[in-house]
Amino acid sequence: MRHGKKHNHLGRTTSHRRAMLANMASSLIEHKRITTTLAKAKALRVYVEPLITKSKDDTTHSRRTVFSYLQSKDAVSILFREVAEKVANRPGGYTRIIKMENRLGDNAEMAMIELVDYNTVYTAGEAQTAKKATRRRGGSGKGAAAPKAEAPAAAAAPVVEDAVVVEEPKAEVAVEETPVAEAHAVEEAPAAEEAPEATTEGEENAEKGE
């Protein structure tokens, strides 16, 4: 019985299966993208991703361990020189499986497996998404900071208006003073005119006394 044995044998013996996965992993590392059946692509992902994680630690022990699986010096050198630098900041999920049309001969499910960081189309989309996220964060920060900057300007505006309002009443007071002076002048004029009337009455009394 095969209880608990969930990996796919792919219809091959253990030695044949390991050799096939080693060849496919070497081709994936060298060409960054290969096309195979969906079942083989899923088995290859489980086989190659631990090796990519191992390549982040560039030591003699790590190189020998990876070489024991790949059996290819060229693939090991490319993995530790190029691929390790690309995936240095990625915590996992180094490969992507994309389903394709079924094979014409036997109608087998086909798929393309590729290294995520070497796909310029998807990588550009992820970069734009990251930029948009940062812009939204920056925009919200600017929006929060903008009212703070506008608050002093709004407080300063009434001060200017008050100065204008204070000056206008002064001008009105000056205008009102002129009519008051004219009123006094007008009132004083009749007083001056009344004096001759008093003198005329005095002259009349004097003439009567004579």
Write the layout of secondary structure elements.
Elements: H1 14-31, E1 33-37, H2 38-55, H3 60-70, H4 73-86, E2 95-99, E3 110-115, H5 120-209
Antiparallel strand pairs: 1-3, 2-3
Helix pairs in contact: 1-2, 1-4, 3-4
Task: Describe the overall structure.
By secondary structure, the protein is mainly alpha-helical. The chain has a domain at 14-118: 50s Ribosomal Protein L17, Chain: A. Helices cover 72% and strands 8% of the residues. The chain is built from 5 helices and 3 strands. It has a 3-stranded antiparallel β-sheet with strand order 1-3-2, covered by helices on one side. Helix 1 crosses helix 4 and helix 3 (60-70) crosses helix 4 (73-86). The longest helix has 90 residues, at 120-209. It is globular, with a radius of gyration of 50 Å. Mean pLDDT is 76; it is low at 143-147, 151-167, 169-176 and 191-196.
